[in-house]
Amino acid sequence: MKKIFRLLFKIFTFIPRKTSAGARAFAKKFHMRISVKATIIFSVIFSIVFAGASALTIILYSNYLKQTDEYSVHAVRQLILLTAVVYPIAMALMLAIGHYVMRWILLPIKGMADTAKTITTETLNTRLEGRGSGDEVDALADILNQMLDSLQLSYEKQTRFISDAAHELRTPISVVQGYSNLLKRWGKDDKAVISEAVEAIESESANMKNLVEKLLFLARTDKKALTLEPSEFFMNELVEEIVKEAAVYAESRKISTGQMEAVAVTADRELIKQALRIFLDNSIKYTPISGAATLSCYREGGDYCAIVVSDNGIGISEEDLPHIFERFFKCDKARVRDGGSTGLGLSIAKWILDSHNAEISVSSSLGIGTTFKVLLPEKMDAEE
Questions:
Q1: What is the band of 374 on the pLDDT scale with cuts at 50, 70, 90?
Q2: Residue 256's pLDDT band (boundaries 50, 70, 90)?
Q3: CA–CA gap between residue 357 and residue 311 (Å, rounded)
Q4: What is the structure's pLDDT at 243?
C-alpha cells in the first residue's frame, strides 16, 4: 500500500517539479530579474484562481437561474462573454500593477547592490542604507553593515599589524647592515671593530628571532590555528618554577614568592607559564637594579586561582595604562630598544588568559611600581 501511495505522490508532483525546474532554467538563461519572475509567478497564480472562480461563478449562476425558472441560454452566454472581456483586462492590470509594486519593494535591494559594487579596500567605511521601515530589507542592510564593520576593523588591524611589524624589523635589519658594512671597510684588521660588530649583529639577530616568533604566535591566534591543551596541575608549583628560572637572569633584582597556597587548576600549563613569564619579564625589565618583583598564588572567590605579579619598578603612566595590551604599543619609557622590546608580549599574554576566560587587572603608579593580577578559573569549560 505504501508503494502505491509513493507512486501516486510521485505522479502528482512530477509536473509541478518539472515545471518549476523548467521555469528556473528559463529565468537563468535569460537573466530575468526578481521583479519580473515574481510578477509572472503571481500572474499565473492569479489567472488560475480567477479562471477557477469565474467557472464556479458561471456554474452557480446557471443553477440559480434554473431553480428560479428564469434560466436563459442568452443570459449565461452574456455572463461568459462578460467574464471573457474582464479576464484579459484584469490580467493586464495585474501584470502592470504587480510589476510596479514588485519593483518598488525591491528598489532598496537594488540600491544596496549598487552601493556594494562601489565598496573596495579604499572605501570600506561605506555603509548600506535600508528603507527605515523595520522590515526584512532593513534587517538585511543591518546584517551586511555589521559584516562590513567587522571587515573594516579586521582590515585596519591587519594593515596596522603589517606596518608595525615592518617598522619593528627595519631597525634590527638596519643595524645588521650597518655593522656588516663596517666589517667590510674597517673590520679586517681591527679586532675591536670585529668584536663590536659581531656582538651587535648577534644581539639584533636575537631581537629579530624574538619578534618573528611572537608574530607567528599572533598569526596563529588570528587564524584560530592554536588550540589549548588543558591538563590538571598545581598553580603554586608552576609559580615557584617560574621564580626559580627568573632568578638566573634577573641580575641584582630580587625575585621572590609572596602569599602561596596550593591551588589545583585545569588549564594549558605551557601557555599559562608563557603568560606569567611575560608579566615577570616586564617587571624585571622595568625594575631598576636592586629592585624586587614578587609572585603570589592563592584561591579567591571559591572557584578562582589568583596569580599576582608585583614590582617596585618605574611604573606605567595613567594615560598609557589602558593601551598596554595593544599590539606594538610601547610606553614612552619603553620606546628605546632596551632589551629588544617588541610591544607584543602583553598582547600575547592577554590572548592566552582570555582564551582561559581569565580576568586581568592592572594597577600602577609612576616611580612606585606595577601589579598585574590574574583571576583564573580553576576549571575550564568543556567547550574550551
A1: very high
A2: very high
A3: 25
A4: 93
* Residues with Cβ within 8 Å of residue 217, at least 6 apart in sequence: 226, 348
Burial of 293 (0-12, 13-18, 19+ CB in 10 A): buried
pLDDT tens readout for residues 269-291 = 999 999 999 999 989 988 988 88
Question: Could you tell me if residue 356 is inside a domain?
Answer: yes
Is the residue at 21 inside a domain? no
CA angle (49 as vertex; 106, 38 as ends), nearest 5: 15
Q: Are 304 and 376 in contact (CB under 8 A)?
A: yes
Q: CA 154, 216, 276, 352 torsion: positive or negative?
A: positive
Please write the tens of the pLDDT for every residue from 300-330.
988 899 999 999 999 998 888 988 898 888 7
- pLDDT recorded at residue 21: 64
Number of domains in the chain: 3
Phi, psi of 85 (to 5 degrees): -80, -45
Tell me the pLDDT tens digit for each residue of 21-68. 665 565 566 566 666 767 777 777 777 777 777 777 777 777 766 666
Q: Which domain holds residue 182?
A: 149-222
What is the chain's Cα-based Rg?
38
Instruction: Give residue 332's identity as a one-letter amino acid code.
Output: D
Q: 156 and 264: one domain?
A: no
Q: How many CB atoms lie within 10 A of CB 27?
A: 15
Please check whether residue 317 is in contact with residue 308, taking contact to mean a CB–CB distance below 8 angstroms. Answer: no
User: Is 310 within a domain?
Assistant: yes
